[in-house]
């Protein structure tokens, strides 16, 4: 359920996205709050500036949370973001332990506004192959003798 407080924090994420545009960066902004609603960290997209395909604000905040917060604390945070996280960012958010995400624009809405946003090719993948060989480092790491 979205609250008035959620809407206020989403507006701040949208404001971060708008500010990013004035800096020449892509129009995406995010922030992370603690359980009391206090802002812990903010970020905007710097993919072009940093020449880093992973410089999405959601992934930056997920990495920050994983690095700076204990798992129990991360689980009580909420990320507010101007657009629905992409699959790369969603994976990082899950791994970081962040407890909740609230977004303004859905991926579908973003693609309607900017069709190029959904123009990603699929990459062929083949596998699994060489199970016994591939399992050796996994076993060595997770089941030391």
UniProtKB/TrEMBL annotation:
CDD domains xrefs: nucleoside_deaminase
InterPro entries: CMP_dCMP_dom, Cytidine_deaminase-like
SUPFAM superfamilies: Cytidine deaminase-like (SSF53927)
GO molecular function: catalytic activity
Domain CMP/dCMP-type deaminase: 4-121
Xref: Pfam families: dCMP_cyt_deam_1 (PF00383)
PANTHER family: CYTOSINE DEAMINASE FAMILY MEMBER, TRNA(ADENINE(34)) DEAMINASE, CHLOROPLASTIC
Protein name per UniProt: tRNA-specific adenosine deaminase
Source organism per UniProt: Streptomyces avermitilis
Higher taxonomy: Bacteria, Bacillati, Actinomycetota, Actinomycetes, Kitasatosporales
